[in-house]
Predict the 3D structure of the following.
Amino acid sequence: MNRPLWLLFFAWVVALVATLGSLYYSEVRLFLPCELCWYQRIFMYPQALILFLALWRSDYGVWPYSLALSLVGGGISLLHLAEQRLPGFAPVACKPPVPCSVEYIPQFPIPLQALIAFTLIALSMLLLRRELRR
C-alpha cells in the first residue's frame, strides 16, 4: 500500500474503533449518552462509513470533509471535557436525564477518548493533504 492509502486506512480504523467503542459504552455497559456525547457521535459515526468508502475507492479527495468533521467534533469534545473538568464551567445546559458533567470513567474520560480520536483523524487528513501536494 502506498502512503496516502495507509493514512486513509489509519483514519478509518480510528473512526471505526471510536464508533464501536461508543456503541459498546451505550449498548453493553449501558452508559446513557448526554447531549454533548450525541453531538460528538454525529461527527464521528459518518466518518467510519465515509473513510471506508474512500479507502475502498482510493478516493483521496475525502480529506477536507473528514478534516472538517474532525475539527468540529474535536471542538465539541474539548467543550465537553472542560465542562467535566473545570468547576463552574457550564456554557452548555445539558438536558436531563444525563447532565454533561457526568463522568462514567474518571480515569480516562469519554470526551478525552473522543478528542484523541478526532485529533488522530485530523492529523491523518492533514498528512494526507501534504502527501497529495507532493
